[in-house]
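Duplicate of earlier report; UDP-N-acetyl-D-mannosaminuronic acid dehydrogenase input re-posted below.
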Amino acid sequence: MRAQIAVVGLGFIGLPLALALCERGERVVGVDVDERKVRELRAGVTHVMEPYRGESLESILRRHLSSGRFYVTTSLAEAAAQVDTFIVTVGLPVAGDAVDKAPLLACMRDLGALLSPGQLVLIRSTLVPGMMERDIIPRLASASGLVPGRDFHVAYAPERVAEGRAMEEFQTLDVIVAGLTEACTHRAMEVLARLTDGQLHPTSLRVAELSKVVENAQRDVNIALAHELKAVAEQHEVDVYELIRMANTHPRVRLLEPNIGVGGFCIPNAYAYLAASIPSEEHIPLFSLARQINLTAPHRAARQLDEALRRVGKPLVGARVAVLGLGMKDGSNDIRQSPAVHFVDILAERGAIVAAFDPTVEPYFPFQAPSLAACVADADAVAVATWQTAFDDVAWPDVLALARSPLVILDLKRRIAPRLAAAGWDVPAKDHLPYVAVSPRSAWSPHDATVEMAK
Ligand SMILES: NC(=O)c1ccc[n+]([C@@H]2O[C@H](COP(=O)([O-])OP(=O)(O)OC[C@H]3O[C@@H](n4cnc5c(N)ncnc54)[C@H](O)[C@@H]3O)[C@@H](O)[C@H]2O)c1
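Output:
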């Protein structure tokens, strides 16, 4: 069965995008340079967590492999011989503030060399604004020897889905689309309309590129604001989540909630993409400051844990800390630029003995414990970094009975402390601080009277 569409790059975005197209009845060939990934995908194995309508992505993958709707290869040539559309999702990594355009440009060179007249190249990666006209289209033109916009179509439609909701959002979100020519835009819109029921918004290439980066940068700024509100709420001894809930009852206020930081491939990279697209970063001090605030959020969490431990007479140096959740956000197993991993590194640098557990993250770091019990056993502190749904069903009072008493819990969103209180643990009631020192009721003794909400 010939595929109509090739999805180039089968990562966190490309794989669910390819499978969402299959769900809509398209025949898709997926291409990735990573041989191991292609071998695993062919065997029906993926670690990408994108459940859809109660089915895991792995099960959706297997369904479409066996129906023949989806085929996976490392060979771009094999794909190029059968499709009329290439959808590209190869990203631009960022190291420090430096953007690495090489993987995407290498892909454009290889793809250009295989292009045939009439084909469409639709880029969905997030770009440094200006790249379509400066880098991508010239690269496709020189490698193919064809005239873009005349001999082949080329367009940009930034991908806007959030990890964890991708399968649904591919099919429902509005999409911004820009072609090199009107005919290119039209052709791209025809393809996108087969994927999404959302509205398609045609615009210029530069606006499309900027809109994606600005959407992410705006979230970075809003999250930085939430982190500052947390500090203000603590000073006023009020619960920051209650404060945000109240402020959000105003119809024109939409504050986000603070977490342990910001991670993943999208939001943290937005500033670097934007800064690389203009002559001087001095023009965007707000974005730069937001980045700094969010980058230092795990440091602030580590300082608070240190403070809480000192309150119960335990220095952070030598303390055993169990970190729960390593994904870059709640419900994610993506560890790229994860603030939870950053938090572990900071604690270890400060002398703590750290073990971490995340049921969704494959063994990768030396500090990962094989089980929740092994992670928590004999801990002086437990820090919830990111929450996984499997944690919902844990009998926390039983598990945390394995830790030492008193136990400091850094529990920003109060997911564990209320369950301990309900089980009869002594949990001081103040809720303006992210941490609490707790003791099991059974272990309570006059000596434990010093154990109260650390401040
Ligand atoms: N992750 C998100 O939540 C998200 C959301 C919206 C947009 N995006 C954007 O989507 C793009 C992809 O992000 P991702 O998270 O899927 O990245 P990823 O790193 O998970 O996936 C990229 C894939 O491309 C492959 N690849 C690299 N060079 C290739 C080549 N020459 N030919 C074929 N395959 C190649 C890699 O092996 C990898 O599997 C990025 O531009 C990102 O900014 C990501």
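Residues 205-235 form the longest helix (31 residues).

Merging into the original ticket.
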